[in-house]
């Protein structure tokens, strides 16, 4: 015989219904997500466990009531495991479980089966006049059960604490609040399901165990307030909850079994229709969120284009000035030569003038070449001619060619190779352009001291480095130094350049299957530019050369 207390059953039904709807909603949001599945498992075990708790003290047949007490403890074991699993997985969408996880699951399964035997609860100790069990005789196995449940809860909370420590900002605060809510919830669960029935041998309070989940529901509400869930989806879920809650109340007030059955069927139909409705609302929300994200991305791209256009405008203004200066030098000296002004000038002076003309022409040509290379890279028209070549001699030649430039500044320019033959598949003309640019920059930004160039082999890769004792690299400039038109504002007035050299160098290096980076202890501490190319880069270079 079953004696239902309508108020208690109403509270249980409403709470269980809310948790079930939330569990299904989270699952349908992303069935492939490990966190969503873990939450769904937790919610379903919670609902089953709450219903079993209620029925145990409402069934007035002692043997069945006693069997349900064992079943409550059985579900309690899985409830603790579901919590552990949720905290272990959250917030990952994909997770490869460690090798020990199946062993843990198997151990929990064995302990849960043990709770259904006399090893935990041996017999009925006392019953109420109504017929349900009020006290039970415990066996030594209850200690094992308590230890396993405690281990699962403590381990799960430990995972949550660790994740809380690693989180930052608003996410850290959310983790803290969830941690507080979890501690409160499980403190109540332990009181309702362990302390009172096992230690104090009181089971009449078991129907009210569902109250312990109030903190959980409260923190879900807080999550909604913090914007973790979309308001439209929440509104759809609340509508479904209201639609199902009304016939649930009518089931409690049914006058006969037929009427109750019809209303239960209505509830099932409403659940199916409601879940389909929630999924359609969720899809609509996701589409709007995607459109919003695309809009934001387009806006960001637009801002980047505006920034690039501004940089280009500034660059061309700067380039015009840079071209004008050397061309003025060339024109000036050409005029002097043409009108005979330099007639009778000593040969040494003529050589000096010729060097100035050559330097001015080289600067202009380098700038034009950089502009042409930039356009080719932007349009995907950069052509590479790869061949198997020993890279050491060309690098050594570049260093020798730039020694005069270094000596003019009293700098020690040295070259070191770990071995004399390092064969790579590369476009040597373009790659030497990279190394020459790095050495030229090192000399340009070093007022005193040294510049060192090296080639070495390391773990199947060739490492080229250009180090100096110069000005170093500021933190602000380090983050953007390989982008277009990047020039350090602190050095722009003292040195000439287009801000394209490192950008072009990066593209050339990547076309060779390699990478380029810079390191520096800071301003005034020198810098090191490194280029790393795999020895086996043929597949990449063949693709770039095709």
UniProtKB/TrEMBL annotation:
Annotated GO MF terms: phosphorelay sensor kinase activity
User: Locate the Histidine kinase domain: which residues?
Assistant: 318-537
Span-the-membrane segments of this chain are 6-26, 38-55, 67-88, 100-121, 141-161, 177-200, 206-224, 236-254, 260-278
Name the coiled-coil region(s): 281-314
Q: Which domain of life is it from?
A: Bacteria
Which keywords does this chain's UniProt record carry?
Coiled coil, Kinase, Membrane, Phosphoprotein, Transferase, Transmembrane, Transmembrane helix, Two-component regulatory system
The name of this protein is histidine kinase
The uppermost taxa in this organism's lineage are: Bacteria, Candidatus Wolfeibacteriota
């Amino acid at each position: 015989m079953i004696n239902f207390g309508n108020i208690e059953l109403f509270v249980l039904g409403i709470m269980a219904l809310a948790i079930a709807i939330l569990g299904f909603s989270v699952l349908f949001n992303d069935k492939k997500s490990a966190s969503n599945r873990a939450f769904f498992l937790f919610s379903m075990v919670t609902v089953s466990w709450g219903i079993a708790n209620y029925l145990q003290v409402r069934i007035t047949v002692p043997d069945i009531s006693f069997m349900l007490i064992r079943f409550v403890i059985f579900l309690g074991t899985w409830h603790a495991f579901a919590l552990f699993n949720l905290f272990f997985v959250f917030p990952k969408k994909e997770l490869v479980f460690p090798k020990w996880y199946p062993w843990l699951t198997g151990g929990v399964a064995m302990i849960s089966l043990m709770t259904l035997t006399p090893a935990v609860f041996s017999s009925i100790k006392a019953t109420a006049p109504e017929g349900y069990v009020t006290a039970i005789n415990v066996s030594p196995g209850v200690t094992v059960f308590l230890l396993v449940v405690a281990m699962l809860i403590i381990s799960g909370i430990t995972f949550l604490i660790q994740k809380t420590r690693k989180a930052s900002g608003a996410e850290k605060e959310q983790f803290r609040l969830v941690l507080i809510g979890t501690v409160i919830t499980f403190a109540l669960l332990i009181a309702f399901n362990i302390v009172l029935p096992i230690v104090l041998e009181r089971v009449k309070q078991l129907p009210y165990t569902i109250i312990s989940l109030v903190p959980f529901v409260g923190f879900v509400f807080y999550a909604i307030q913090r914007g973790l869930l979309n308001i439209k989806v929440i509104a759809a879920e609340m509508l479904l909850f209201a639609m199902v809650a009304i016939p649930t109340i009518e089931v409690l007030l049914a006058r006969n079994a037929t009427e109750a059955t019809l209303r239960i069927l209505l509830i099932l139909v409403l659940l199916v229709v409601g879940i389909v409705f929630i999924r359609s609302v969720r899809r609509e929300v996701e589409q709007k969120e995607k459109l919003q994200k695309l809009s934001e991305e387009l806006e960001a791209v637009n801002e980047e284009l505006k920034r690039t256009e501004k940089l280009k405008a500034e660059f061309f203004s700067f380039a015009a000035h840079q071209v004008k200066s050397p061309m003025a030098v060339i024109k000036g000296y050409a005029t002097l030569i043409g009108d005979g002004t330099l007639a009778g000038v000593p040969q040494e002076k003529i050589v000096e003038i010729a060097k100035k003309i050559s330097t001015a022409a080289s600067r202009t040509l380098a700038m034009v070449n950089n502009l042409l290379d930039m356009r080719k890279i932007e349009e995907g028209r950069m052509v590479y001619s790869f061949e198997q070549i020993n890279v050491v001699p060309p690098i050594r030649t570049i260093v020798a060619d730039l020694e005069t430039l270094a000596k003019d500044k009293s700098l020690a320019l040295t070259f070191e190779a770990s071995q004399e033959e390092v064969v790579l598949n590369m476009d040597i003309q373009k790659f030497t352009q990279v190394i020459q640019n790095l050495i030229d920059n090192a000399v340009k930004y070093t007022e005193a001291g040294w510049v060192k160039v090296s080639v070495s082999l390391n773990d199947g890769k060739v490492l080229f480095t250009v180090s100096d004792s110069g000005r170093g690299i500021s933190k602000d400039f380090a983050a953007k130094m390989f982008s277009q038109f990047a020039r350090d504002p602190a050095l722009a007035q003292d040195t000439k350049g287009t801000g394209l050299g490192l950008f072009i160098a990066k593209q050339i290096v990547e076309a060779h299957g390699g990478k380029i980076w810079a390191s520096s202890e800071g301003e005034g501490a020198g810098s090191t530019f490194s280029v790393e190319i795999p020895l086996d880069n043929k597949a990449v270079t063949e693709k770039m050369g095709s």
